[in-house]
Amino acid sequence: MKKVMKRVITACLAFAMILALVTPASVEAATKNESLTLYKGETYTWYLTGVKSLSSASSTKKAVATVKANKSKKQYTISAKKAGTSVVTIKGKDYYGHTQSLKIKVTVAEPKFDLKLQKLDGNYILISLKNNTKATFDRIAVKYSLKDSSGSELAAKEEKVYRVMSGKTAYERIYVASAADVDISQSSVKITGFDRNPDQKYKVLGKDKLSVTVTDEQASDTRITFKLKEVNKTSQYVYGEVYILSYDASGNIIDLNNGSIYLDKKETKTTPEFYVSKSSHPNFDHYEIVYSGYYTTK
Questions:
Q1: What are the boundaries of the signal sequence (predicted)?
Q2: Which of 228, 204, 205, 231 is nearest to 216 (CA)?
Q3: Domain's final residue, options 77, 109, 141
Q4: The domain that contains 76 carries what CATH number?
Q5: Residue 14 has pLDDT above 90, yes or no
Q6: CA distances, 43 to each of 4, 66, 101, 159, 269 (Å)
Q7: Would you say residue 240 lies in a domain?
Q8: How confident is the model at residue 28 (pLDDT cuts 50, 70, 90)?
Q9: Could you say which of 63, 84, 109 is where a domain stops?
């Protein structure tokens, strides 16, 4: 009987030791490592997960990237300052009082964009933004200053250019009452902000995956009307932009119309009617459909 009791006591002690090893109270401090690429001027805000409180945030090279902690929301915001690499560390306390750390290797790259202004027919100015980076952006904020030949400012405003895809040119048409007096050589436009989700992967689609074609075209002396047939050949939700560019005989853009692309998986859709005005553009020669689209994955 004593031997049996001794074995029971031994087994209980062994079980208690195993339980002590796996109980949450014994979890040690842990460090998670990640990497992130941002472009100069870009910011990234996210949450420190799995913690009860956020205690600190630091950057090894503040000239490259700074980090700011919002302790009440357990949020941190990284701001890209200049090209280079910095290690950002965010620390917090878990629900058992242990320190949990997140180390992020932040690589800041120089944004490579071709940004220009161009006068269109009527009271319109065209903003063209060519994206030469490897990243795709949902939106890019730009600020323009339009001046006359004497350098006097006629208009200044911030605008957003939507769905700026890697390797593609995005456009935005702006109305300016005094567009006839604008001197492009005296005017300027610059990027002021980026909007994308660096945690997602953006896949820009080729024409084998996304197609936009003209259908039901009818032409008269004053206008051309048509619809667009949009076909998504992927098994993902697709977002994009379609531009209707009007040209003169020399190949200069004289007008722009645009629309957004939203397609379900494997969806084919015909748009409402578009038109190109010939009577409003005496130098009109032809039009072109330019489009691009993408989907995102984790």
A1: 1-29
A2: 228
A3: 109
A4: 2.60.40.10
A5: no
A6: 67, 10, 21, 18, 36
A7: yes
A8: low
A9: 109
Give the tokens for residue 282. Answer: 């005496």
Residue-wise pLDDT for 153-178, tens only, equals 999 999 999 999 999 999 999 999 99
User: Which DSSP helix (H) or strand (E) runs through 198?
Assistant: none
- Torsion, Cα 78 82 85 90, to 10 degrees, reads -20
**In this structure, which amino acid lies at residue 285?**
D
Q: What is the tens place of the pLDDT at every residue in 91-108? A: 999 999 999 999 999 999
Q: Are 60 and 98 within one domain?
A: yes
Residue 287 to residue 219: CA distance in whole angstroms: 12
Per the structure, the count of domains in the chain is 3
Q: Name the residue range of residue 64's domain.
A: 28-109
Mean pLDDT of 182-193: 97
Contact 252, 287 (CB under 8 A): no
Look at residue 137 and tell me if it is in a domain: yes
Q: Which residues pair with 229 in a beta bridge?
A: 213, 270
Instruction: Select from 206, 284, 285 the least CA-distant residue to 238.
Output: 206
Same domain, 259 and 216: yes
Q: Is the pLDDT of residue 16 over 70?
A: no
Q: Looking at the domain assignment, is residue 5 inside a domain?
A: no
Rounded Cα distance between 164 and 229, Å, is 22
